[in-house]
Design brief:
- The protein has 252 residues and is α/β, with parallel strands linked by helices.
- It has a domain of 167 residues: P-loop containing nucleotide triphosphate hydrolases (Rossmann fold), CATH 3.40.50.
- Helices cover 32% and strands 24% of the residues.
- It has eight helices and ten strands.
- Strands 6-7-8-3-9-10 form a six-stranded mixed β-sheet, with helices on both faces. The chain has a four-stranded antiparallel β-sheet with strand order 2-1-4-5, with no helix packed on it.
- It is globular.
- The N and C termini lie far apart (44 Å).
- The structure holds adenosine-5'-triphosphate and magnesium ion.
Length: 252
Amino acid sequence: MSTPIDNSQPLLQMTGIQKWFGRVHALRGVDFEIKRGEVVGLCGDNGAGKSTLIKVISGYHVAEQGQILWEGKEAKLASPYDARALGIETVYQEQALAPHLSIARNIFMGREPTTFLGLMDQKAMNEMSMKALASLGLKLRSPDTTVATLSGGQRQGVAIARVIHFKAKLVILDEPTIALAVKEVREVLEFVRHLKSEGVAVIFITHTLHHVFDVADRIVIMAHGAKLADIATGDTNVDDLSDIIVRGTYGD
Ligand SMILES: Nc1ncnc2c1ncn2[C@@H]1O[C@H](COP(=O)(O)OP(=O)(O)OP(=O)(O)O)[C@@H](O)[C@H]1O
Ligand SMILES: [Mg+2]
């Protein structure tokens, strides 16, 4: 697939985003943008506001102030449903999957195709699941396998196969490599490269700069609810980025 990507305007453009939790000022006027097919690593210390920012994008939190444009138009992101309808899919850590259900059920969770009798169409689900998994290069024995028996990397693969099937334009991965073995981290990075090659934009949150640096086009560092730095990976390196996070300052 090689549809030319129109990158004349950002896919998502957020300006002046403010979010409060009671007296906690979690986002202090954050500007953030991402283009089609771009991979952005979102880094920064605990409590910096990373998850809050992506929850605003995925419709879980509504910002008190700020503007959000999607494909150049004002976007309403009042619920996760709104975000999904635009093509924004979020892959959380473990809670995204139901371990006791099959791979196929996990891919379709809540959006199962039905037969004309209104029953869940198991056959269609199995076929579409295997197709989505195969397109990721992930070979799993059967769509009936329960997720509980999969490795951490394979589970991330199933979660990502879901977003591939539903044709996401922006995929958000909140710490997808936490608690994964080295080989599994590599698998997840391959999934990210695959999404990028399909023109899908990816926001990848991690505390481990090494995990995201090679796959990211740009790194955004947050601190205390604000954006501290926004740098193309070609213009920096992991050591300099780590220094920025540790010092909590940039550009002085
Ligand atoms: N639902 C909530 N209710 C109240 N405060 C919250 C809530 N969610 C986040 N916060 C607060 O907002 C701030 C930003 O939190 P957030 O979870 O966005 O940080 P983070 O960068 O994702 O951190 P971590 O790396 O630890 O996941 C923190 O002070 C946090 O305590
Ligand atoms: Mg977080």
